[in-house]
Specification:
Blueprint (H helix, E strand, L loop, with lengths): L6 H7 L6 H14 L8 H22 L6 H4 L15 E4 L9 H5 L5 E4 L7 E2 L3 H10 L3 H7 L10 H9 L6 E2 L2 E4 L2 E4 L3 H4 L6 E4 L4 E4 L9 H30 L1 H56 L12 H5 L2 H45 L8 H22 L3 E6 L20 E7 L9 H7 L2 H36 L5 H13 L1 H32 L3 H39 L3 H14 L1 H34 L7 H7 L7 H39 L12 H6 L8 H8 L1
Antiparallel strand pairs: 1-2, 3-4, 5-6, 7-8, 9-10
Helix pairs in contact: 3-16, 3-18, 11-13, 11-21, 11-23, 13-21, 13-23, 14-16, 16-17, 16-18, 16-19, 16-23, 18-19, 19-20, 21-23
Length: 731
């Protein structure tokens, strides 16, 4: 007799079966989420922290080293005085000794003094009233005090003044000047300078005229033009830069609108990739095969057409049309095209399955990015950090470069002193200010003095830290995004919280691994910089020896090329190692080994995925940048009608419309780079996760695959159904 049981008893008597989703959830919790919460590469993090502490300490020492950016931004006169208020302009005794643009940067050999206002008229020492003005306003006070034992008279006679001028204590003449970047430069019109007229000055008291000279030659406007031509070019450049700034300010609203359009377009492109990717790739392949097929047909047709004509022996001629008239040229071109077509067809047949896998992974990446929208905004944070540290590096370098004391050297050969040799301030009229630095012959008795004396040591350390920190920030961005998309793959979570969870795990557990990988990149970049510096020093030491110079350049290029290749390989390894660290929580070396194993076991899949991703992202950058650039061109050039109400903002009057247009194009490229960097990271992360899923799971009830159904189908694997589910399916 069959015993009846209640539905409750029947339910209780059936052994509970765990669903595949529950198994996947347990795997994610136990094997990924919990295990990745391990601190990795702690020693590297300690080392990075020590280096950063030293960098901060060095910054404090640099700050107290006496460095002041004014020392390189503002000029100093021959006595070493900084030209600040109220004497903020640098006056040159003889402008003819200041030929070239270097006058604005390093000064020239003529004596200089700081004056309150630049001379605005002609003065010449032979005229008594002029001589008094020159003596009281434009002579070197430090040397006059020594010359007259501290009791400087109000005026001197012509003979005395001539003696002072020969000693380079006082100027012989002045011409009209104007202040430009705190330097006094001639303010004579270009029309006058183009004339060959002499510089004549009149003495109204004696009704005499004098030819201005510099004690060696008479001055004319052509000589003044030769000495100041570059300075006038810079004056025109100032007006040009002002126009550029006005154009930028006038069009800033339109620039912002166009950049917002670029951002929205980039996001839309990532969204629609899942729908247009497959036809886009297949149409590209069909177009490539069709183009090659047409090339074979055209070349062979041309060959048979030219074959019927009388042929001559082939000669070497610098004429392309001659070779195009030969049948053998088209035969060779047809054979080459046919071989390329055959290779392409074979590659398509061999790689078609891997191409389908690449397309599906890119679609999965598109889904991941759009479901975690905030991931597209995260790279802005590392970008701001990089810019902030770059500004910090520049500030350190500038302050260190302008720390030290005033250095003087001998200019001219009117004395027994060697020209160019160092000298003490005020020791002779030929002793003028040279630069702001540190005298290597002086003794140092403090850390700050040591830093000033050997500036290359902290400068190189500062540069190394720039390389390390910049690579560290890049690695931080990659690891946070990798953890985010890894969570999306294994947990199928569509919440934006996965990004913040990945950010927390990276900050708490994995900074050491980032420090390890970024250190390798920094060392490669630093070695390349050292090789470049050594190459320059060796070239300067060998002089004009061309043979030795070529050998040095060849060896340097070989070393830098090898280091560049090594850096590219390390960046590739770092990127994939960071993905494994972020997901599985193992140290850098083990994660790099696991990533290389996965890639080495799937080389064709990785290669096809990489090439396809590069192609569609290049196409996206090109389309978006070109599209926004063309749109900006129509707006900035006023190529179409805009209502007067909006013309101020969307069609401003510009001096050079290409200025805001370049800003839009560069800004659009940077925006697409930020968006597509996130997408690339999603593609790489999902690919490694899928390959890891394929290697550790077998599709059984205990180890089901986590990947999507479409990926399972492309990879020709499937999850096995439980026995109960099979019975239910039969029923």
């Amino acid at each position: 007799m069959t015993k009846k049981i209640s539905p409750v008893e029947e339910f209780d008597s059936v052994p509970s079966q765990r669903s595949q989703s529950a198994i996947m959830r347990d795997y994610y919790e136990n094997e990924i989420k919990n295990k990745r919460k391990n601190c990795t590469d702690i020693l590297c993090l300690v080392l990075f922290t020590i280096f950063m502490v030293v960098q901060v300490a060095l910054s404090f020492l640099i700050y107290f080293s006496g460095g002041d950016p004014k020392n390189i931004l503002l000029p100093r006169d021959s006595a070493g005085n900084l030209c600040t208020e109220p004497t903020q302009n640098l006056f040159y005794f003889n402008i003819l000794e200041c030929i070239g643009i270097n006058t604005l940067l390093t000064g020239c050999s003529t004596p200089t003094i700081c004056v309150q206002e630049c001379p605005t008229t002609y003065y010449f020492y032979k005229i008594e009233s002029h001589r008094e003005i020159l003596f009281n306003n434009y002579c070197r006070k430090d040397l006059l005090s020594n010359k007259f034992s501290g009791a400087i008279p109000n005026s001197v006679d012509e003979a005395m003044y001539l003696d002072l001028a020969k000693q380079k204590i006082c100027p012989v003449y002045t011409i009209p000047y104007k202040s430009y970047y705190s330097r006094c430069i001639p303010a004579i019109s270009a029309a006058v300078l183009d004339s060959a007229g002499n510089l004549i000055v009149n003495d109204t008291s004696s009704d005499q005229s004098f030819q201005i000279n510099d004690l060696n030659q008479d001055l004319n406007f052509n000589l003044v033009k030769q000495g100041t031509e570059k300075l006038f070019e810079l004056m025109n450049l100032k007006n040009f830069l002002q126009s550029l700034l006005e154009d930028f300010v006038s069009s800033v609203v339109l620039i912002i609108v166009l950049l917002l359009i670029a951002s929205v377009t980039s996001f839309i492109y990532i969204i629609i990739l899942r729908f247009i990717l497959k036809p886009l790739i297949y149409l590209t392949l069909i177009g490539l095969v069709g183009a090659l097929g047409f090339a074979v047909y055209y070349c062979i047709s041309k060959y048979f057409q030219l074959k019927e004509q009388p042929q001559t022996s082939v000669e070497l001629k610098p004429d392309v049309n001659y070779y195009l008239s030969l049948s053998v040229t088209w035969l060779v071109a047809g054979i080459i095209s046919a071989v390329i077509l055959l290779i392409v067809l074979l590659l398509i047949l061999v790689l078609i399955k891997r191409l389908r896998l690449a397309i599906q992974i890119i679609k999965e990446a598109s889904r991941a990015v759009t479901s975690i929208f905030i991931s597209l905004l995260f790279p802005v944070v590392p970008l701001l950090l990089q810019l902030a540290f770059l500004a910090y590096f520049i500030a350190n370098a500038v302050i260190l470069a302008c720390s030290g004391t005033t250095l003087f050297r001998i200019t001219g050969n009117s004395s027994n002193l060697t020209e160019g040799s160092s000298c003490e301030q005020g020791s002779s009229p030929e002793c003028v200010f040279y630069k702001y630095g540190f005298d290597a012959n002086s003794a140092y008795n403090s850390v700050i003095s040591f830093l000033n004396a050997y500036q290359w040591v902290p400068q190189l350390y500062n540069l190394f830290m720039l390389f390390w920190v910049q690579a560290f920030i890049v690695g931080f961005n990659q690891m946070v995004l990798a953890g985010c998309f890894g969570d999306w793959y294994w947990s199928k979570s569509k919440s934006s919280c996965v990004l913040f969870r990945s950010l927390k795990d990276t900050l708490v557990y994995h900074l050491g691994s980032i420090a390890f990988g970024s250190l390798l990149i920094a060392i490669c970049k630093f070695l390349r910089t050292i090789i470049t510096l050594v190459e320059r020093r060796l070239k300067s030491a060998t002089g004009n020896n061309r043979a030795i110079g070529c050998c040095i350049k060849f060896m340097s290029c070989c070393c830098k090329c090898c280091l560049w290749c090594l850096e590219k390989v390390l960046k590739f390894i770092n990127r994939n190692a960071y993905i494994m660290v972020a997901i599985y929580g193992r140290n850098f070396c083990k994660s790099a080994r696991d990533a290389i194993k996965l890639l080495a076991s799937n080389p064709l899949r990785a290669l096809v995925l990489d090439r396809v991703t590069d192609f569609i992202l290049f196409l996206g950058r090109l389309l978006i940048t070109a599209g926004v650039g063309v749109l900006g061109f129509f707006f900035f050039s006023r190529a179409f009608y805009i209502h007067p109400t909006f013309r101020k903002y969307f069609a401003p009057e510009l001096h050079y419309y290409w200025v805001p247009l370049i800003c839009v194009i560069v800004g659009t490229y940077l925006i697409t780079k930020i968006f597509f960097t996130v997408f690339e990271m999603a593609v790489d992360t999902i690919f490694l996760c899928a390959m890891k899923d394929l290697s550790i799971n077998d599709g059984s009830e205990e180890k089901p695959y986590v990947m999507s159904t479409k990926l399972l189908k492309i990879l020709s694997v499937k999850n096995k159904k439980s026995k109960e589910k099979k019975d239910n399916d039969k029923f």
